[in-house]
Design brief:
alpha/beta, Pyruvate Kinase, Chain: A, domain 1, five-stranded mixed beta sheet, 6 helices
């Protein structure tokens, strides 16, 4: 049975832990608001680009591009977007569980985030490249990842490129999702969450587009930018999910620490009262024995 001294030490230790988790919760909360704002701000542009490209590509029936070439999948690349740090609940566990379902023999990994790199090294899977990205992802970081994947695809080293990331839904809900990056197929179906509800004029069809110098040149330059921006949006979604999950995890840890302190304090008071009662009984018994 623990002594009152042991319980006091545990209470002090848990209080120190609660102070740390509370501070981390406040930091994550501040970063979360910024990350969520950036993720939500990028969605309209991605939505409009998706709608425009879907309509334009439909109007340019003869257009073809190496990034749109569909091949038999012998080798697959997976862009794994994880966090650099832990303490964000089950976010990374869910991602890595999904990543583990890909065939180890036919899948090569491109990682963004240290947790993904550690997973690939630990499971002895094939890694093509390792990238990092900041708390506020920059377009240059996304472009580097997208460009590397495009080069692998164009060289024929891989026949398919997927992106595994955590899609931000709300502060309490994030979902691990796999999206196809290459080859570019039906553009309107590439990103199911980025629908073009607000662009019925584009969906209506019947639009005539004039290209200068020609459709192949315009779309050929636009498609790589489209892929770069999609990757940029994926990074923002992942970062918003990370900060939200970390804030919730730290809040839960702080609440649990407070409950533990409450239980330990109750146990301490009971033990202290029992000791006092025991001492009183000993004094009373000794006095009665002495007459």
């Amino acid at each position: 049975m623990p002594s009152t001294r042991d319980i006091r030490r545990r209470i002090k230790s848990v209080k120190n832990t609660a102070q740390i988790t509370k501070a981390m919760q406040m930091v994550a909360s501040s970063k979360m608001r910024r990350a969520q704002a950036e993720a939500l701000a990028g969605r309209p542009y991605a939505t409009l680009m998706n709608a425009v490209l879907a309509e334009v590509s439909a109007g340019a029936a003869e257009f073809s591009h190496p990034l749109m070439e569909k091949r038999e999948i012998r080798k697959r690349a997976l862009i794994l977007v994880t966090t650099d740090k832990g303490l964000c609940g089950a976010l990374n566990s869910n991602l890595l569980r999904e990543a583990g379902r890909f065939d180890q023999e036919t899948t090569v990994f491109i990682t963004a985030g240290r947790k993904g790199s550690q997973f690939v090294a630990r499971t002895r899977r094939s890694m093509a490249a390792e990238f990092t990205y900041k708390d506020s992802p920059e377009f240059a970081e996304a472009r580097a990842i997208s460009k590397f994947a495009q080069e692998l695809f164009l060289k024929g080293e891989v026949d398919h490129v997927d992106v595994l990331f955590t899609n931000f839904i709300n502060t309490l809900s994030q979902k691990s999702e796999v999206r196809t990056l290459l080859p570019l197929g039906e553009l309107s179906a590439l990103n199911p969450d980025l629908t073009s509800e607000g662009h019925s004029d584009l969906q209506a069809g019947g639009k005539e587009f004039l290209f200068e110098p020609n459709a192949a040149t315009v779309l050929g330059n636009l498609l790589p930018h489209y892929l770069n921006y999609q990757m940029f949006q994926f990074l923002h979604e992942a970062k918003a999910s990370e900060q939200s999950a970390r804030m919730v995890a730290m809040k839960n840890a702080t609440d649990n620490a407070k409950q533990i302190i409450k239980d330990l304090t109750l146990e301490y008071n009971k033990l202290r009262q029992a000791n006092i009662t025991k001492e009183l009984l000993e004094i009373t018994t000794a006095q009665m024995a002495m007459g």
